[in-house]
Structure formats: C-alpha cells, structure tokens
Amino acid sequence: MPPHGETSGRTLARSASLAGAATLASRILGLVRDQVLAAFFGASDEMDAFIVAFRIPNLVRDLFAEGAMSAAFVPTFTRELTTRGKDDAWRLGSNVLNALLVVTGVLVTLGIIFARPIVSAYAGSYAAVPGKLELTIELTRLMLPFLTLAAIAAAIMGMLNSLHHFFVPALSPATFNVATIVCVLVLAPLMPAAHVPRIMAVAIGAIVGGAAQIAMQWRPLAREGFRYSGSLNFHDPALTRVLVLMGPGTIGLAATQVNLFINTLLATSQGTGAVSWLQYAFRLMYFPIGLFGVSIATAVLPAVSRHAAVNDSAAMRGTVARGLRLMLMLNVPATLGLLVLATPIVRLLFERGHFSPADTAATATALRWYAVGLVGYSAARIVSPVFYALGKSRVPVMVSVTSIATNIAASLALVRAMGFAGLALGTSIAAIGNGGALLWMLRRHLGGIEGRATFLAAVKIGVAALVMAAVAATVSRYSVAVVEGTSTAAQAVRLAGAIGCALAALAACAKLLHIEEFTEALGGLSSARDTI
Questions:
Q1: Pick from 152, 161, 174, 151: nearest CA to 23
Q2: Burial of 182 (0-12, 13-18, 19+ CB in 10 A)
Q3: Cα 332 to Cα 310: distance, rounded to the nearest angstrom
Q4: What does the pLDDT look like over 125-182, one tens digit per residue?
C-alpha cells in the first residue's frame, strides 16, 4: 500500500484533473466566444460598453456569490455533511439558496433603478462619445439579473464539490459560453433590423447562459437526494455561520476582482480600445488560472474542510502543500509560456474581422504584464479559502484590503508612465503581494506548509520552465522560415510546433530533475480520463 501522502497526492491531483478537464472545455469555449466577439466587435465602443456593463453584475457575482460561496458556504456545508449527515446539509443548502434569492433580488432591483448614476460614476468619460454612456446603461440594466442566476449556480456548485462532484460543476460555465456564441451568431445580424444595437445579442446570451448553468448542475444534485424547500429559517445556526462568514469571505477574496474593476475604471480614460485590450488579455491570462489555480483550489477546499472538521492539522498541511506544489508545476511554465508566446497566441486567436494588428500588439503587451502575476493569483485562490475553513477569517480580509490599496497606488503611478499596460502590471504586482502574504500567514497558522519540500520543488520547476521557455522562443522564431505565410493554418502550425517542442523539453527536464509533481499531474490526468 502506498504511503498516505502519496495516496493523498494522487487523490488531490485526480480531483483537480477532473475539475481541470471540465474547466479546459469551458475555457476553450470561452476562447471561442472571445474570438467571435473580437471578429464581430473588435476593440470598438460597443465592446467597451459591454465590458463595463457586464463588469458591474459580474463583480458583485464574483465577490458576493462565488467568492462568498467558496469562503463561507463550502466549509460550513462540508462540516454539516461530515458531522450531521445529508438531511441537515440539504436543509442548509435550501436556506442558502433562498437567502441568495432574497438578497440578490434586492441588489438587482436597486441596480436597475440606479443604473444611470452607477454607470456614470464608473465610466463617466464615456459621455464624451455620443451614445456610448447610454448604451452602457441599457446593457447594465439588461444583464443585472445575471447576478441572481450566477449566485444560485455558485451555491449548487459548492454543494456538488462538497459531495466530490467536480466535473459537471466545472463544466457548467461552458453553457454560458455556448449561449453567448449562439446568440451572437444568430441574433446579432438581426438586431439592426429591429433598430437595436448588435451588442444586445451578447447581453441576451449572458442571461440565457446564467440560467443554463443552473439547469446543468441541478440533475446531479437531485440524484444525490437534494430536494429544494422554499422555507427560509434565519435562526438556523449553520445559515447564521454562513452569513457571518460571507462578509469577511467576500472581502478576503475580493482583491483580484476589485483590482480588475479598478483597472477597467482607470482604462475608460485611456481611449477607445483600452478597456477591450485589457479584457481580452485578462481572459487569456485567466485561462491557466481557471484551468490550474481554480481547479486545484476546488479540489483542496473540501478536503481541507473535512480535515478541519476533525482537527487534523497534519493532514491540512499536507493537502495545502501538495496543492501549492501542483499549482507551481502547472502555472510557472504557463507564465513563461505566455511571456514568450503572447504575440503569436493573440494573433492566432483574435486577429480577424474587426480585430486589427494594432489590437494584437496592444493585447499581447497587456497579456505579458498580466502573466507576471499568474502564480500570485493562483496561490491566493488556493490559500485564501483555507483560512475560512480554519475559522481565521480576519487574515485574508486584512491581506485583501492591503492588496487593493497596493493595486490602486501602483496602477495610478504606472498608468501615467506606461498607459493601459501599466494597469496590467499594477494588478500583477498586487497579486504577487496578495499571494505571498497569504502564504506567509498560512505558514504561521498551520505550523508550516512543508516549506523545504515546496522550495525544492519550486527551484526544480523554475529550472525546467526556463528551459521550456527558451525552446519555445527559439522554435517560434525560426519556424517562420520553415512554415511560411500568414494564413490561420500556417500560424496554427507554427504555434503548435513551438508549444509541442516546449512541452517535450519540460517533460524531459521534469524526468531528469525527478519532479514528482509532474508525475502526479500526469497520473491525475490519466485517472480523470478513466473516470470521465
């Protein structure tokens, strides 16, 4: 029988791989969605308006729904499930769903009523472009109900993750991307005939996609025995615990989304296209975060919550440390890969239709600066929820507030020197500080996180990733002479060749350096494939 640590490592890698496989499908569809949006709208005033309008309900969703669900609901639901059984857990689940319906319903109503002053405060410079501010306000009102739909979907996802269901919840966001793509392709060409801006088709797709995320997850939850109850009992101690943790949970996980919100606010003054360039770049950078950082965090949190419920500190340390090492194995190479291949990636994915070579250059620049903070983003996603499982909610709150202040100061300084690209770098600086501070504090609270093993793994992974990046840059540079032309097929062959050679170099280095996390990642992928 393998040692306990090895078994746990393989289990964690398998759970993360299940979530990662589904997230990969969703992220690929997300890239297709962004390609469709780029081809239809480019970096136009319409696209700028949509991004700002969607950022408002999406920010509240990320903070209040998904962030709070991870920080407050999952540990509490897991505790109920572990110590009291499914009936009490189901009762808590219904209570949380009903509370979310009430609270988000009030927020949506207020948002629709006060959309004009909210948008004007956020993107007042849009008033300088005729019709741009009014379009943003209309889009905001139309998309605000997405907040309620996403909150319910996030709560269902939390329940399923606690029950060891990772694939379907991680795949459910794919329905949002599919709905958006279909609505753009089908409805956008019809909008002018109805005297409606084409971008409204994207807003309709967002609402349809939000509803589809709920529908996709409801069936597996029902198969586990969940039956929805319309009652809302605010005296339920478990619900009280969730609500008490939601405030700190929202603030503690707020840094990334608030920083992105601030970026968008500052970018509205940088002229047409700046908001869109940053959005396209952040979406590309968020691909490895979602695929690796969020997937690992999704697998780590229920496991840590179960260990916390029985006060098993050693198991918690091991689970967190293995999650961090696995994240480094995946995200350090991803960071260097984005740095050296940003331009060919953006050109292949987006440069067509209304998306010009100038848009490619600007988006690639933003992508490189965002990629600098990739490990920081992912570390925070893994570590921050652990504090809530430990009942130490004040720690991530303090760190998050400090990170937001750092981002504001850095972004204000850098945007003057670097323009819109400085906003991406400022966010990365804040992300690195956020992740680093959380790791330092968690190390103190857990009595260590296997620091020596983690440091050694990080050094090995760094060496392997540098070799990989050198190979990627070399192949990308010289492949132009081998595969000539600017067609999509030629670009795809050159990029695939660079990535393929880089991955081969990474695998060879991992074998030579005996990087165990590389083997765990491959083993997890194999197990996930067999399960699927």
A1: 174
A2: middle
A3: 34
A4: 888 888 899 999 999 999 999 989 988 988 898 888 888 787 788 788 888 889 999 9
Can you say how many angstroms the Cα of residue 196 is from the centroid of all Cα atoms in its chain? 32
What three-state secondary structure class fits 470? helix
CB 176 within 8 A of CB 213: yes
Note whether 294 and 27 are within 8 A (CB): no
Nearest Cα residue to 132 out of 192, 53, 54 = 53
3-state secondary structure 373-400: CHHHHHHHHHHHHHHHHCCCCHHHHHHH
Cα Rg of the chain, angstroms: 22
Tokens matching residue 179: 């709905």
6-30 as b/e, with b when 16 or more CB fall inside 10 Å? eebbbbbbbbbbbbbbbbbbbbebb
264-316 pLDDT, tens per residue? 778 877 777 888 888 889 888 877 766 665 666 666 666 777 777 777 778 87
Residues 6+ apart with CB under 8 A from 25: 171, 174
Helix axes 86-113, 237-252, angle to 10 degrees: 50
Check: CB of residue 499 under 8 Å from CB of residue 472.
Answer: yes
CA quadruple 361, 430, 335, 283: dihedral, nearest 10: -60
- Helix, strand or coil, per DSSP, at residue 129: coil
d(CA 423, CA 411): 5
CA dihedral 7, 12, 13, 14 (to 10 degrees): 90
DSSP three-state, residue 301: helix
> For the stretch 446-458, what's the b/e string if a residue is b when 16 or more beta carbons lie within 10 angstroms of its beta carbon?
beebbeeebeebb
| Spatial distance between the Cα atoms of 496 and 337, rounded to a whole number of angstroms | 12
Cα distance between residue 282 and residue 262, in whole Å: 13
d(CA 260, CA 427): 7
d(CA 89, CA 77): 6
Please count the other Cβ atoms lying within 10 Å of the Cβ belonging to residue 358.
12
Q: What is the pTM of this model?
A: 0.67
Output b/e per residue, 36-47; b: 16+ Cβ within 10 A: bbbebbbbbbbb
pLDDT of residue 254 exceeding 60: no
| DSSP strands (E only) in 355-482 | none
Count Cβ neighbours within 10 Å for each residue of 225-250 and write b for 16 or more, e otherwise: ebeeeeeeeeebebbebbbebbebbb
> CA–CA separation, 65 vs 394, rounded Å?
19
pLDDT above 80 for 41: yes
Backbone phi, psi, residue 417, to 5°: -90, -35
Calpha distance 468→70 (Å, rounded): 34
